[in-house]
């Protein structure tokens, strides 16, 4: 079916990355991203994974996340830190500033709207 897309990281090769040096707080986190779909207007869906470490994040985009595995702590500047793990779903809205700390390698499904 041309209008049905399975979200499966085995379908594409991952892109490899890491936090920008000026955003790194601790550790040596590495990213793998399987961007599985793109739609007009800046909408993306796929799977993202990060190894342990901590870095600063700033969101200009809207993102829905569903944690598949691992444990992370997402902390908003001036707000509370939230521990997220397998089964948790949440939205990060534009304007969010804080840190993402991976305690155990974390894998999530995402949908991003720019």
UniProtKB/TrEMBL annotation:
It comes from the Bacteria. Residues 41-110 form the (S)-ureidoglycine aminohydrolase cupin domain. It holds the Pfam family Cupin_3. PANTHER family: (S)-UREIDOGLYCINE AMINOHYDROLASE CUPIN DOMAIN-CONTAINING PROTEIN, CYTOPLASMIC PROTEIN-RELATED. This is Cupin domain-containing protein.
């Amino acid at each position: 079916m041309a209008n049905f897309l399975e979200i499966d990281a085995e379908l594409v090769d991952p892109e490899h990355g890491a936090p920008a040096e000026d955003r790194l707080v601790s550790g040596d986190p590495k990213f793998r991203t399987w961007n599985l779909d793109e739609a007009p207007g800046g909408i993306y869906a796929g799977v993202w994974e990060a190894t342990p470490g901590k870095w600063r994040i700033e969101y200009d985009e809207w993102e829905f996340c569903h944690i598949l595995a691992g444990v992370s702590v997402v902390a908003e500047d001036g707000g509370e830190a939230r521990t997220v793990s397998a089964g948790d779903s949440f939205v990060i809205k534009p304007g969010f500033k804080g840190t993402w700390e991976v305690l155990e390698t974390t894998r999530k499904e995402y949908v991003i709207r720019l």
